[in-house]
C-alpha cells in the first residue's frame, strides 16, 4: 500500500529515551507514521498519489506539542471575560469593571480574572467595586484562580457577613471589626462562585471551537484538561467536548479529567482513564485523571510548606494550608484507582508534594495512567527520587516561573532556588516530566516556558535579575521532549509525542533548528509553526 504522505527534511522523531532521533523522512498512512528513515528508502514506498511535504532548508519537524495541564473550557471562556491581567494598576482594573458593567445587562454577573495583589501593591476591596459598579454582582478571580474578589452585592447574595465563619480550607479576609473586605481566599471563593449560573453549553461550545484553533496555531495538538476551574459534579465539559468531537469540530486531542465532586458520576458512567468519550472519533477525546487539590498557591501564600514562609508575621503558622487533607487525598485516589481511574494531585508546596506522593503511592502501579503530581513547585530534595521509585510523574509548568521567581525568592528564601522548580534534578533522578501552561492561569503559548526551562530566566525580568537556580536548566532537547513525549508517557503511551512507526502523525514544522546555546533557546520563546498536522491531516499552513 503506498503512503498517503511523505514528509522529508530534518525530522526529530524523539525515538528512544534521549536525543532528537533525527531522520530524513517519515511516511504517513491512515493518520499514523508508517515508516521513519532515509529519504531514499521511503521514496520507494511513494506513488503518484502520495502527498509530499518538503521542509525548507533550516526548518525542522517535530511531534506536535501536548499541554499536560490546560483547563480547556475555562481557558476558552476566560478569553471572553474581563482580563485583569491587562490592568497594571487597581484603577485600571476598575475601569475594565465599569466598562463591563455598562456592557452586561443586570442582573447578570460580571466575571473576570487575572488580578494580583502584589502587582497592585494592595489587596483589592469590595468597596472599590461598589464605587464603579454600584449594586452589581461581581466575582473576579485572582491570577492563580484560587481567590475571588467580590462586590458587596455578591457577598450579600452569598450570605457572607461579619458573623460568617471561615469555611474549611478557606479564609474570608476581613477588616479589623470582622467585616468581610471583599477578598475570599481558596475554598472561601466557592461561597460566591457557587451562586454564579454556569455558562450555557452553546457558549462553551463556541468558545472551545475558537480556542482550539488558537492552540493549533501555537503548535499545540493535544491537551490534558484538569477540568473546570469551578465545582463540576456531572463532568459537564465531557458532554460538550463530545458534541464537538462528534461534529468533527475538535481539531485537537483532549484528555478530560474528572473532579472530586464528579467522581461518583464518572464511576457510575464507567469512565476509566484512557477510554474514549466519543466512540468513532479516533483518539480525539479520552477520559484523563481524577484531579485533586492538596494545597493552595504561592501567590496566595496558601501552598502547604514543611517550613514557614520567610519572616512570616501573619496569622497561623505561615506554612500555608491543605485544601484536602492527606487522608482524604489517599482515600479518594484509592477509590478512583479501584474504578480504573488514575489520579493527579495539585501540589505547590513541599509539604503538599510529600503528601501527594504518599497518597498516590499505594495504587500507583494499578492504574491505566501514571498518577501525577501537578506543579511540584517546591519539592524537598529527599522526595525527588520518590517520583521514579513510586512510578508517579511530575507535571510542571515552566512558564509559572516567569511571574513566580520574585515571590518564590521572597517567601521561600534559599529553599526557592535549591529545591524550587527543580526540573533538571527531577529528570536526573529518573522522574517523568510533562510540561504544560496551566492556561488560563498563564497564556497557552508553550514556547516561552520551553525557552525559560533552558535559560532559567525570562526576557521580561529586569536585566540585573540573575537566572533562577541555573543548575536546574534543561537542554533544548530535554525541554522539547517534556512538551511532547512527556505528556504521552504519563498516559503510559510509548508512541504518542514521537514520530516513530505507529505514532499518530501529529507534527509541526518549525523555522529554527534547535541547537544548544542561550541565543537559540531565546529565539524559541517566540517561535510559531509554519505547518501543523494532526492525524496525518495538514490543519494549518502559513
Ligand atoms: Zn491548573
Describe this structure in words.
With 542 residues, the chain is α/β, with parallel strands linked by helices. The protein folds into three domains: 5-64 and 501-541, Urease, subunit C, domain 1; 67-73 and 201-490, Metal-dependent hydrolases (TIM Barrel, Alpha-Beta Barrel), CATH 3.20.20.140; 110-193, Roll (Diaminopimelate Epimerase, Chain A, domain 1), CATH 3.10.310.70. Helix content is 32%, strand content 21%. It contains 19 helices and 22 strands. The strands form four sheets. The chain has an eight-stranded parallel sheet. The protein has a six-stranded mixed sheet with strand order 7-8-9-10-12-11. The model has no long low-confidence stretch (mean pLDDT 93). It binds zinc ion. Zinc ion (ZN) binds next to loops.
Amino acid at each position: 500500500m503506498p503512503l498517503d504522505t511523505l514528509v522529508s527534511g530534518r525530522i526529530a522523531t524523539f525515538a528512544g529515551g534521549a536525543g532528537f532521533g533525527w531522520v530524513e523522512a517519515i511516511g504517513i498512512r491512515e493518520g499514523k507514521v508508517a515508516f521513519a528513515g532515509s529519504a531514499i528508502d521511503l521514496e520507494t514506498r511513494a506513488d503518484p498519489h502520495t502527498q509530499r511535504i518538503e521542509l525548507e532548508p533550516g526548518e525542522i519537524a517535530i511531534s506536535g506539542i501536548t499541554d499536560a495541564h490546560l483547563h480547556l473550557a475555562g481557558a476558552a471562556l476566560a478569553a471572553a471575560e474581563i482580563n485583569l491581567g491587562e490592568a497594571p494598576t487597581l484603577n485600571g482594573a476598575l475601569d475594565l469593571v465599569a466598562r463591563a458593567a455598562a456592557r452586561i445587562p443586570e442582573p447578570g454577573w460580571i466575571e473576570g480574572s487575572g488580578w494580583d495583589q502584589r502587582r497592585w501593591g494592595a489587596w483589592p476591596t469590595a468597596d472599590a467595586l461598589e464605587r464603579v459598579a454600584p449594586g452589581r454582582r461581581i466575582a473576579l478571580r485572582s491570577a492563580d484562580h484560587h481567590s475571588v474578589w467580590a462586590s458587596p452585592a455578591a457577598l450579600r447574595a452569598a450570605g457572607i457577613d461579619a458573623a460568617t465563619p471561615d469555611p474549611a480550607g478557606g479564609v474570608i479576609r476581613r477588616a479589623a471589626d470582622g467585616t468581610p473586605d471583599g477578598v475570599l481566599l481558596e475554598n472561601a471563593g466557592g461561597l460566591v462562585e457557587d451562586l454564579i449560573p454556569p455558562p450555557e453549553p452553546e457558549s462553551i461550545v463556541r468558545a472551545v471551537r475558537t480556542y482550539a484553533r488558537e492552540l493549533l496555531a501555537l503548535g499545540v495538538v493535544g491537551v490534558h484538561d484538569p477540568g473546570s476551574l469551578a465545582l463540576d459534579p456531572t463532568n459537564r465539559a465531557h458532554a460538550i467536548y463530545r458534541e464537538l468531537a462528534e461534529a468533527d469540530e475538535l481539531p485537537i486531542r483532549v484528555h478530560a479529567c474528572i473532579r472530586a465532586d464528579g467522581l461518583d458520576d464518572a464511576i457510575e458512567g464507567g469512565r476509566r482513564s484512557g477510554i474514549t468519550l466519543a466512540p468513532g472519533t479516533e483518539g480525539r477525546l479520552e477520559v484523563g485523571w481524577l484531579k485533586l487539590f492538596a494545597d493552595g498557591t504561592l501567590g496566595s501564600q496558601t501552598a502547604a510548606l514543611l517550613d514557614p514562609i520567610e519572616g512570616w508575621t501573619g496569622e497561623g503558622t505561615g506554612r500555608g494550608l491543605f485544601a484536602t487533607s492527606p487522608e482524604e487525598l489517599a482515600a479518594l485516589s484509592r477509590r478512583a484507582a479501584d474504578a480504573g481511574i488514575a489520579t493527579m494531585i495539585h501540589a505547590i508546596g513541599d509539604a503538599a508534594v510529600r503528601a501527594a506522593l504518599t497518597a498516590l503511592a499505594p495504587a500507583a502501579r494499578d492504574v491505566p495512567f501514571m498518577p501525577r503530581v501537578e506543579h511540584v513547585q517546591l519539592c524537598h530534595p529527599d522526595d525527588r527520587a520518590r517520583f521514579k521509585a513510586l512510578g508517579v510523574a511530575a507535571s510542571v509548568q515552566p512558564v509559572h516561573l516567569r511571574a513566580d521567581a520574585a515571590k518564590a525568592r521572597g517567601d521561600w528564601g534559599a529553599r526557592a532556588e535549591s529545591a524550587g522548580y527543580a526540573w533538571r534534578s527531577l529528570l536526573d533522578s529518573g522522574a517523568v516530566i510533562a510540561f504544560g501552561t496551566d492556561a488560563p492561569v498563564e497564556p497557552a503559548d508553550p514556547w516561552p516556558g520551553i525557552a525559560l526551562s533552558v535559560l532559567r530566566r525570562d526576557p521580561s525580568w529586569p536585566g540585573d535579575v540573575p537566572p533562577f537556580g541555573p543548575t536546574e536548566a534543561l537542554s533544548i532537547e530535554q525541554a522539547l521532549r517534556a512538551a511532547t513525549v512527556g505528556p504521552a508517557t504519563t498516559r503510559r503511551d510509548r508512541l504518542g509525542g514521537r514520530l516513530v512507526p505507529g505514532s499518530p502523525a501529529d507534527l509541526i514544522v518549525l523555522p529554527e533548528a534547535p541547537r544548544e546555546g542561550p541565543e537559540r533557546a531565546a529565539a524559541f520563546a517566540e517561535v510559531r509553526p509554519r505547518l501543523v498536522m494532526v492525524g496525518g491531516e495538514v490543519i494549518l499552513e502559513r
